[in-house]
Amino acid sequence: FCNAGLLELSLGKFRNVLLNQTNPVEAVIRNIASNVTVVIFQVHAQQSEVVISFDKNPSVNSSGTGVDKGLVSILRPQQSVCTWYLQSLDASQVLSTAISIPYMEKDPIPGGCNLEFDLEVDPNIYLDYTLVDIHIKFAPANLGYTRGANPPSCDSGTGQNSRWRLHYDVYQYFLPENDLSEMVLMSHIRKMSEVQSIKANGIKMLTLTTDDKTNVYFSSLPGQGVIYNVIVWDPLWNTSAAYIPVHTYACSFADLVDNCSSFSKLSTKVFFTALAVLGLFTCFCGHRFWKTDLFFMGFIFAGFFFFVFITRATGLGYDVRLILTAAAGIIGGLFLVASWWRFGSVLLCMFIIGLVLGFLFSSTVFFTPLGDYRVFRDDVVFWVTFSSVALMIPVLFVGCPRILNILASGIVGSYAVVLAIACYVYTSLAYITLDLLRRVLNDYFSRAYTNVPFQTNDFIILSVWTMLALSGVTVQLRRERCEVPFPPHPYLTWKREKERRSTNVLDPSHHIPPLRERIHNKLLHIKEFFQKEQPAGERTPLLL
Length: 544
Prior knowledge:
This is Transmembrane 7 superfamily member 3. By secondary structure, the chain is α+β, with helices and mostly antiparallel strands. Helix content is 39%, strand content 19%.
């Protein structure tokens, strides 16, 4: 660590430094080799913004402010020393890490053709986030050149001798799940600062050419640390340079409610915990308790579409929408049960159940890297493909509805448990359905890349989901193999029983008294139970 006023650096070496608001730290690199033409100096902090500047008194055109900031020093002939100044905007001490990276004359210069931001040469990546997506943008690079020469023109043409030949590879790196510590960030951001380290540790998401806009969207993962960086590549010289890595947790550390440490609202926890209890029962007993199974599937089906409708049509708060969604789900579940009781249509009920399973299956397919294929950026292509995959499930199982119902109750019921776990511990498996909901509710979510981490927590919870689903399906198949596929139509059964009792005078149930008389007799029986028992014998005196 360094907390003195002078920070001596070596090229390519990280140094941790404590910054404060009152005393700027002077960072110095000496003995720079003559073949180095550019030095990119960068500093990173977790949540408190720091100022990095060429001068002791920062100005707009010579400094940058943020949690991940860097400056490009174009070296003059014979120059062997570089100096920068660091300080925090926070009154308390801020832990940060700094590094300087050298580049040669054939290496491209990140941000060398900046026309949008304040710095003349800006190697920074600018990041904005919402609860739905993350947006990164950066300035185009320029070709490298020797010390003392004029920089190549950024607009002199589009041929192979201009900056238009450059390519940009965008990389993503996930921090360990459920770890928000500063030291973890400092150690991992080093893996995303230099070209070779980025290629070895990061996930390459896409490649942009100079014809493409230099901005990219990703799905937001609140509470999960993510680092982004861009490598600019010159195909003529086969040389590369890295921009300044930028990180985000897609949440605020300072907020008292819904901060990075809280995974979900109380209303969300109550809703999905109750759903998980019902889902766990359905997972093992759904087919045996047919009406409960129908209620569970009807609840999910009606609740999902009602939440989409009320979110797009109104501006109600989240808690209000969730309460109304629960009410709509209950109505939907009761309606499906009532429909079965009155009409007894197994096909209609199984179509709804098959759709619920189909939607989950289709969401899982697009949760894989397949969902990030460029062809599915088109909403028409995506929704036609998604609907076809979802409808495939009820169509394939149209001849064996009992198998379909047992599979649906086992898989969907166990996934409800996964959603409940996600309210308390971060897991990427929740985004199987959450990304679908985001795509339905947000018109521009199709442009976002939906890659998520898959780490230890996710493997454990995936194992739990798999074991619950397999156990539930196996138990139900063994228990129901000798039973009738579905219970008889309840309304017809009740109607036949009523006719039988009214016509068969030998049936004891034919002589059951009317309801009013039965209630009266019951009340009399209860009254007699509470009356004090009379003693035996005569209570009047004997006449002599």
